[in-house]
Design a protein that fits this description.
alpha+beta, four-stranded antiparallel sheet
């Protein structure tokens, strides 16, 4: 390489080094957020499922948090990230190795290199000592890489809390799905009993010639329709039981034959508790998925600086202390001691394009995570918006369905009186029975939907995650 080429290369390296001095901001971007309020009670969200006042639900959620396999996998990912932090930290300290070596050489005995008479052509060399090396972190490359690894660890901890929040919500939804299926099954079984009594009565009336066969066959059809619905309700009960067994991390045997404790009282199921609803001012701190995305973005920003640090020269120190001798018995004698120290500086010249490509790759990765963060915030506020709307409308639907069921219950009593008094045909009674059963079924579904909406609201607001935990204050 000519002097001119060398000068140009050094100049390019200097320019690249100055370019690498720029530090990348690690904070999240400023976004246009809706107006916050304090109407949502943060304390009521930490363990929101307690607001339902159902000890069976509390027990199932605690069991799921303790044994759910998805959560267990998330915990192992935290352990992996913690190990990666230790791995990144290792570059901040010198490496010291114990080096032991033994060699045996033979010299030529021919020509001008012939050995004098009496000298052996064989020679031995034994060496033992400590070798140390250390690269000075003058540009903060390894410190920044360690900080990025800590942000990755933080992100995995927030991801674990995201899974924990999801597991609590899924367990509560499966539980109330089971309770709704129980309520539906109980309603249908009571209805079937009533239909059976009505069918027996109609059979007696048919045999007495009071009614025709049409009315009797219609009663039979209504009885069988309810019997068919019972089979569907039993299937729903079984599926929700097995879902809860999986969520709570039970054994395959227990999943196959699940035993789930729950409250089967329909009257309690149709009452839905209240959680103060509003757009909490600390939602950005409460939701672990937002915190996870922010930590990932910060780590990506730091890795841009790590990539830029490769533009700078690397300064390394080396040291050696040990013993060397031609005979093993002389290895640890005083005259055999050896030592050495050294320093080196390496400035990239030819590989600058590779460094530039790495910086560009890390920048592109950061830009992708920046978009992901923006989208995560967008989805978070959509979740809250939809959950607030659902929480209001499902309660309105439940109130309307409850009132409708009460009115149809009165209508059934009146139609039964009219039929027994001879003022109306039996079809009017059957129609009233169908409408009441439908209204009662819809009332159960409306109560289930109201509880699901409450669960979604608590989850959207970051409920179920203790934001006072130490990971939020690192």
């Amino acid at each position: 390489m000519t002097r001119k080429h060398l000068t140009n290369a050094l100049l390019a390296a200097a320019i690249a080094t100055l370019h690498g001095c720029a530090s990348t901001p690690v904070g999240p971007p400023q976004l246009d957020l809706p107006v916050m309020s304090q109407t949502a009670n943060s304390a009521s969200l930490d363990r929101w499922w307690h607001n339902f006042g159902d000890p069976a639900l509390d027990k199932l959620v605690d069991e799921a948090i303790a044994h759910n396999l998805d959560l267990a996998a998330a915990i192992t990912r935290v352990d992996y990230a913690r190990a990666q932090v230790k791995f990144a930290q290792s570059d901040l300290y010198p490496t010291v190795d114990l080096a032991v070596g033994a060699t045996r050489n033979k010299s030529t005995e021919l020509g001008t290199n012939a050995l004098p008479p009496g000298y052996s052509p064989f020679s031995n060399d034994f060496r033992v000592g400590l070798q140390a090396s250390y690269e000075l972190d003058l540009w903060g490359k390894y410190r920044t890489a360690t900080a990025a690894a800590r942000k990755d660890l933080l992100a995995t901890e927030y991801a674990r809390e995201t899974v924990r929040t999801a597991v609590a919500a899924q367990t509560a939804q499966a539980y109330f799905g089971l309770v709704a299926a129980d309520a539906q099954l109980a309603l249908l079984q009571d209805t079937l009993k009533s239909r059976d009594e009505s069918l027996n009565l109609q059979r007696d009336r048919l045999q007495a010639g009071v009614i025709g066969e049409y009315d009797f066959r219609t009663s039979e059809a209504e009885y069988l329709a309810v019997a068919s619905d019972i089979a569907v309700a039993k299937r729903s009960v079984a599926e929700n039981e097995s879902a809860l067994a999986v969520l709570t991390g039970r054994s395959p045997r227990d999943v196959f034959t699940p035993q789930i404790d729950r409250d089967q009282k329909l009257a309690q199921f149709t009452t839905v508790p209240q959680i103060p609803a509003g757009l909490s001012s600390d939602i950005l701190q409460r939701r672990p998925d937002l915190q996870q995305s922010e930590a990932q973005l910060a780590a990506a920003n730091m890795r841009i600086d790590v990539a830029r640090a490769d533009y700078f020269p690397a300064v390394s120190l080396t040291g050696l202390f040990g013993s060397e001798a031609g005979a093993l018995k002389s290895l640890f004698m005083g005259p055999a001691a050896i030592w050495g120290i050294g320093a080196s500086l390496a400035q990239p010249l030819v590989g600058l394009k590779a460094i530039e490509a790495n910086v560009e790759a890390q920048t592109a990765r950061r830009n992708e995570l920046l978009i992901d963060y923006t989208k995560t915030v967008q989805v978070a506020f959509k979740d809250v918006h939809d959950a607030l709307s659902a929480n209001q409308t499902t309660r309105e639907a439940l109130a309307a369905q409850t009132e409708r069921a009460n009115k149809l219950r009165q209508a059934l009593e009146l139609s039964d009186l009219r039929y027994k008094s001879g003022y109306s045909p039996y079809l009017e009674v059957l129609d009233s029975q169908r409408q009441l059963l439908q209204a009662q079924t819809l009332q159960i579904i409306a109560a289930q939907n109201a509880r699901f909406a409450l669960i979604d609201l608590a989850r959207a607001l970051g409920g179920g995650w203790d934001y006072t935990d130490s990971i939020a204050h690192r």
